[in-house]
Structure formats: structure tokens, C-alpha cells
Specification:
By secondary structure, the protein is an all-alpha fold. The chain contains five helices and no strands.
């Protein structure tokens, strides 16, 4: 069975390609969904490493959230860039591994 993120992406691809009025995703059989689910894995792999602008946006969010924290100066170098990038990659790596396991019938 596909993971939630893989399923969301596959459904979005399906609906984007087929447009309004297409047969609902939930009514499609496993064989029909298979190419869209494979495309979803490719999308997740392409997104695994954030772009530089995504990393900057994450840094800004970290600064906004924690800049007033009393120990911010000591943690700043670690928090900016490193943590958001690792978290993003870890989340997508988890989803990719789960999707590939499901594809191979290991789940």
C-alpha cells in the first residue's frame, strides 16, 4: 500500500493530467494507479534535497521562531541551514523508503 505522501502526489498528478470530470482516484484500480504512484516516487526523490531558496526560507522561519530564546546565539549556527535541511531530507527519505517498500511488496 502506498504511503500517504506518495498517494497525495500520485492523485494530484492523476487529477492534473486528466482534469475535471475524470474518474475519481478512489475508483481507479491498482493497475491504473501504478504509473502515477511510480511518478510520485520520482517527485519525492527530486524534492529530497531542498533548493537554496527553500533552505533560506527555512532559516528565516527558524530565526523568527527562536531569535528571542535566551540561548539563541549559541545555537544559531547549528539551527540555521543544518537542522531545517536535515529535517526536510529525513522526512522525504522516510516517505521514499516506505513507498519503495510498498512497491516491492515488502510492507
Amino acid at each position: 500500500m502506498a504511503g500517504e505522501m506518495q498517494e497525495r502526489i500520485a492523485r494530484a498528478i492523476y487529477e492534473g493530467r486528466n482534469g475535471a470530470g475524470c474518474v475519481p482516484w478512489s475508483r481507479r484500480d491498482r493497475a491504473h494507479k501504478a504509473p502515477y504512484l511510480s511518478d510520485a516516487i520520482a517527485v519525492m526523490k527530486a524534492m529530497r534535497e531542498p533548493t537554496p531558496t527553500m533552505s533560506l526560507a527555512a532559516d528565516d522561519a527558524v530565526v523568527e521562531q527562536y531569535a528571542e530564546h535566551p540561548e539563541w546565539e549559541e545555537a544559531k549556527d547549528m539551527a540555521e541551514g543544518l537542522i531545517p535541511t536535515r529535517i526536510w531530507a529525513a522526512m522525504l527519505s522516510h516517505e521514499i523508503a516506505a513507498a519503495e517498500e510498498a512497491k516491492d511488496g515488502r510492507s
